[in-house]
Hints:
The complex is a heterodimer.
Chain A: H1 8-40, H2 58-64, H3 67-100, H4 105-117, H5 120-130, H6 137-144, H7 159-184, H8 188-197, H9 202-213, H10 215-230, H11 234-240, H12 251-261, H13 265-293
Helix pairs in contact in A: 1-13, 3-4, 3-7, 3-10, 4-7, 5-11, 7-10, 10-13, 12-13
Chain B: E1 6-15, E2 18-28, E3 33-37, H1 44-52, E4 59-64, E5 67-68, E6 79-82, H2 94-106, H3 109-112, H4 123-138, H5 156-168, E7 174-178, H6 186-203, E8 207-211, H7 214-220, E9 223-228, E10 231-236, H8 238-243, H9 248-253, E11 260-266, E12 271-274, E13 277-282, E14 290-295, E15 300-316, E16 320-326, E17 334-339, H10 340-344, E18 351-356, E19 360-363, E20 368-369, E21 372-373, H11 379-385
Parallel strand pairs in B: 3-8, 3-9, 6-7, 7-8
Antiparallel strand pairs in B: 1-2, 1-4, 4-5, 9-10, 11-12, 11-14, 12-13, 13-21, 14-19, 15-16, 15-18, 16-17, 19-20
Helix pairs in contact in B: 2-4, 2-5, 5-6
Amino acid sequence: MAETRPGARAEALAAWALSLPALILLWAMLLGPAVAVLLLSFTGWSLGEAEMEWIGAGNYAQLAADPVFWTSLRNTLIYVGVCVPATVGLGLAAALLVESVGRGRGFYRAAYFLPVASTLLAMALVWEFMFHPTVGFVNQAFGALGLPVTDWLNNPDVALLALAVIGVWQNLGLAMVLFVAGLQGIPRDLYEALAMDGADGPWERFRRVTWPMLGPALVFVVSIIAIRSFQVFDTVAVLTEGGPSKSTEVLLYTMVQEGFTFLRSAYGAAITVVFLVFTLAITMAQTILLDRRAHYG
Amino acid sequence: MAVASVDLIGIGKRFGATEVLQDVTLRAADGEFLAILGASGCGKSTLLRILAGLEGADRGQVRLGGEEVGHLRPKARDLAMVFQSYALYPYMTVRQNITLPLQMRRLSALQRLPLLGRLAPGGRALRAGITADVDAVAGPLQLSALMERRPAQLSGGQRQRVALGRAMVRQPAAFLMDEPLSNLDAKLRVEARAEIVAMQRRLSATILYVTHDQVEAMTMADRVAVMQAGRVLQVAPPQHLYDEPASIDVARFVGSPPMNIIPALLDETGMVELAGHVLPWHAQGRAGARVMAGIRPESLVPRPGGLPATLKRVERLGAEAVLHCALPGVEDTVLARVETAIANGLSPGGTIPLMPRRVLLFQEAGLRMECRPHPAATPAMEGALG
């Protein structure tokens, strides 16, 4: 190659030197562990063993044949499938309501956000009481209204749904806060132009301006709520322990059981890889969608 | 509705403790281009928003074509507005932006439904009519090739034309424009000015045009209303506003470089005494009365026997030059606008005699006073006046 501009080599060296710390940290803190988990999932290692044996896709073959894993994956997908639309829908409704009040906006925002900020582990106690078959608020209220009552957390038909209710309750505030930020970014001009153009009803305002302008916020909220729902663990661990009869067995709970309770670290790593693939897919979908339509300029 | 006149009668508006509009009365005749000119915060945009129905007035009436519309919502007023930001819908194409006002007006709620609306009876013919009208508006605005683009893919001038198209497509009773050109660069602004004026002539549209730019107001409007601190100071055709300002505030606001406002006295015969010199201008008033003399920069001409001015700086504009001068006993810099050839012979520090060709007088409180050239002027000054 012909001699390049003088100093170009030094510049390239400087560029590498300057980005090196960031690259090292990126690999050490973020990408490295993921790769480590991936490699671990191809071994037969258990915690405490001195030797690490490469078994290829053995763990994955075992996963594919394990009915508990399939139940767990199915339960997780149902949980996410219930939580995401409910949280996003209610979060948007809450954001619209909170933004429409004149006074006390700060109070409502803080109130909705409280569950996000609090420790779910502690709040699970409250929910356990709420769902208590006899003295719990839910059954008291359902009973008073003449609705069917049950032992929510111990009935295999509804236990997952009960956990989803807690999940929605916890993430609602986050969705709301993100939507509020999106709503505040909508120029008032657009609503005024719309009024001049002949549309000033709430439905037309929502359909013609609010909803399309919230597009980028919506993509972000859906993906973050989906990821957080995939991560469901605390409530399962504290309230149901995956039961009754595996009806609330979810990915992370299975992973923790295998990896930490039964010390089958490599098997747990394989479940983690499955979990990471889902998270990665959501993140990539979000990036692609946002790149494509977020830039209204 | 066809093109209509617009009346604002005794409009008052408060925001909390601030009175933003005080008893504003304005009329734009059928087909008139009325500019509302004022510095930012003078209430001109609020006035336009009250007219549009986006803001409610505390007092007063809004009439369109003689009919009271103050109680009507914006969409029922048959007005179109061009916003400073253009307020185009960013997620819609140019075509969709311009089509929306017609969809809202001509199609029923059922026909407007997404997807299902296409099946609603009677929609097809209406939609064809809307498309034809949109195309008819887009052509003259040179938007035909841009119809499928989104606003983010357009230049500032193109966006401005889309905003104009969205307003025109409905053929409203009147157009309201809120600083529509302030986001354009200087060259585009001159072009857009011509476009809007041409559009106004073509449609004989009534336009209320809010601006802080006096050049826009002066070059485009049939009449200009000058506003300050929530009041209308004067409404007049541009040249009249320039030549015969009703008050010192109007005189100061209109004209660039601004009018010289110089403290003066009336002597015992009513002659105007300025910077120690008696000028051949006469006014009714008691002897010793303090007044303000207003002299446009272009009516100060270098001439023997004029006011002894010390030249501080010469500002060259090409064809002409602005002389920055000091007059004895006058605090503010006095500006004179002369041909470049005259300025070439001058150097800062020198003294030049400046003779006012026209003097406007204002009371100290700011109102205009009558002031005429005096027949018994000194010979030297008479020469200047001739």
